[in-house]
């Protein structure tokens, strides 16, 4: 597992996978590697995502969700490229959606910087 995995993922993998660094996350009935052709059937993907309220959710949507969360957490384009293993900025930009929540975070951070600067200026004598 990468050193920079989120704690929720670390805990989940510790509970549901073998301790071996090369352990498989998804396995078939006999513990063997799953192939893309039988993955959905083997893990009952359609039934499982519907049961958790995400009908129509695709496996690749996990990648999109993770990268969107990384971008919303402040990851730069270069950092997203590194996490995704892409050489092109175009792919990373897909995940940098503008959101109202992130817009508020940016405005708040700007307010804090302005206030700090104003305090510094106000504390100086002429």
TrEMBL record:
Ranges for domain Tyr recombinase: 1-108
Top-rank taxon: Bacteria
Alphabetic keyword roster: DNA recombination
Entries under InterPro entries matching the protein: DNA_brk_join_enz, Integrase-like_cat_sf, Integrase_catalytic
Alphabetical list of Pfam families matching this protein: Phage_integrase
Keyword Chloroplast: no
SUPFAM superfamilies hit by this protein: DNA breaking-rejoining enzymes
PROSITE patterns, alphabetized: TYR_RECOMBINASE (PS51898)
Entry-linked Gene3D superfamilies: Intergrase catalytic core
Coiled coil: none
Protein name: Tyr recombinase domain-containing protein
Biological source species: Micromonospora coerulea
